[in-house]
């Protein structure tokens, strides 16, 4: 057991500072005073942070960069400053360090060296989007940014069909339509709220089915980062996924003697992409289907057999691809 007390007299400290997510007026008095008094401000982007500092007439004693590409090199500096008794304020471009931004390493390093870690809370894109979505706020699950690959994104999303509460995601504008298409493939009847320009003049919330929103954004290309809020699962059940339903049906067909050719041909449609066209990489699509089927309890062999019949991908190739990918059957 470990007890850590934030305020134990003078000495080194790490302040984890939440900064405005768009509207500079959201900076708290405490944030401003913390930035003014800190010996070092470690910022994700010093140029971006200077705008906030200038707005509040803050003249930092030392402003350094701390981001994804230098955080390991910067660790020695942090330790040295703490050994000298200095206070460090950690900030990102917007929001809270560690929430889809650099910061976890610095917090872990401070704890390891006995340095008090003091959160300075503030604006949150997650909470702003949730409270404006119109969906029940509690409980909710925050997933951050999805992996770039389709297979990996499906691996993250699939287990949450029946999870109580809303799902919250972040997404960049150039990937937003692709993500909505994926959601349309998984849960076409699950409403999504897109929150954009939060706290700014053009703040807005778009609500609709994922396919509907994707079509809208194809006509009006998105700008800026978005927060996606997916409505909670329906009471007593999860969201049905046509993608998974097809795999299950295909598996049942594969294990049933004398299955008709018509059943196999109807299953092939499940291997198509969300727009009805053949996916750019049939093997990647098939791997995603196998992983989803296994997450629902189907054995590796049955899932490979069913998806191979469904998509036309060679069974041996698919078996080894999913085996090497570390597929394991979900527990009972």
TrEMBL record:
Pfam families given in the database record: RsmI_C (PF23016), TP_methylase (PF00590)
EC number: 2.1.1.198
Keywords associated with the record: Cytoplasm, Methyltransferase, rRNA processing, S-adenosyl-L-methionine, Transferase
Annotated compartments: Cytoplasm
Alphabetical list of InterPro entries matching this protein: 4pyrrol_Mease (IPR000878), 4pyrrol_Methylase_sf (IPR035996), 4pyrrole_Mease_sub1 (IPR014777), 4pyrrole_Mease_sub2 (IPR014776), rRNA_ssu_MeTfrase_I (IPR008189), RsmI_HTH (IPR053910)
Record keyword Transferase present: yes
Domain named Tetrapyrrole methylase: residues: 13-212
Catalytic activity: cytidine(1402) in 16S rRNA + S-adenosyl-L-methionine = 2'-O-methylcytidine(1402) in 16S rRNA + S-adenosyl-L-homocysteine + H(+)
Top-rank taxon: Bacteria
Gene Ontology cellular-component annotations: cytoplasm
Gene Ontology MF: a single term: rRNA (cytosine-2'-O-)-methyltransferase activity
Every RsmI HTH domain range: 282-324
Keyword Endoplasmic reticulum applies: no
Family classification: Belongs to the methyltransferase superfamily. RsmI family.
Function field: Catalyzes the 2'-O-methylation of the ribose of cytidine 1402 (C1402) in 16S rRNA.
UniProt cross-references to HAMAP family, sorted A to Z: 16SrRNA_methyltr_I (MF_01877)
PANTHER family: RIBOSOMAL RNA SMALL SUBUNIT METHYLTRANSFERASE I
Protein name: Ribosomal RNA small subunit methyltransferase I
């Amino acid at each position: 057991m470990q007890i850590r007390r934030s305020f134990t007299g003078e000495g080194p400290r790490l302040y984890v500072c939440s900064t405005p997510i768009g509207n500079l007026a959201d900076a708290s008095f405490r944030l401003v005073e913390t930035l003014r008094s800190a010996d070092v401000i470690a910022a994700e982007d010093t140029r971006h942070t200077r705008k906030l500092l200038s707005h509040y007439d803050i003249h930092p004693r030392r402003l350094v960069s701390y981001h994804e590409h230098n955080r390991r090199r910067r660790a020695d500096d942090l330790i040295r400053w703490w050994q000298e008794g200095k206070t460090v304020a950690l900030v990102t471009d917007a929001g809270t360090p560690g929430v889809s931004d650099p910061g976890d390493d610095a917090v872990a390093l401070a704890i390891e060296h006995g340095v008090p870690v003091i959160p300075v809370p503030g604006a949150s894109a997650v909470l702003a989007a949730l409270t404006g979505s119109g969906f029940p706020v509690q409980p909710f699950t925050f997933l951050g940014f999805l992996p770039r690959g389709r297979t990996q994104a499906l691996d993250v999303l699939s287990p949450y069909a029946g999870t109580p509460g809303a799902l919250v995601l972040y997404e960049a504008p150039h990937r937003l339509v692709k993500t909505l298409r994926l959601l349309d493939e998984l849960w076409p009847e699950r409403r999504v709220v897109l929150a954009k320009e939060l706290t700014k003049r053009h703040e807005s919330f778009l609500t609709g089915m994922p396919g509907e929103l994707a079509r809208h954004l194809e006509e009006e290309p998105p700008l800026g980062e978005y927060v996606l809020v997916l409505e909670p699962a329906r009471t007593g059940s999860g969201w049905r996924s046509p993608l998974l339903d097809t795999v299950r049906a295909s598996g049942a067909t594969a294990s049933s003697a004398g299955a008709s050719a018509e059943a196999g041909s109807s299953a092939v449609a499940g291997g198509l992409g969300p727009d009805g066209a053949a996916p750019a990489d049939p093997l990647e699509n098939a791997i995603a289907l196998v992983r989803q089927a296994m997450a629902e309890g189907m054995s590796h062999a049955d899932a490979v057999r069913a998806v191979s019949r469904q998509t036309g991908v060679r069974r041996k190739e698919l078996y080894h691809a999913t085996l090497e990918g570390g597929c394991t059957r979900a527990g009972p």
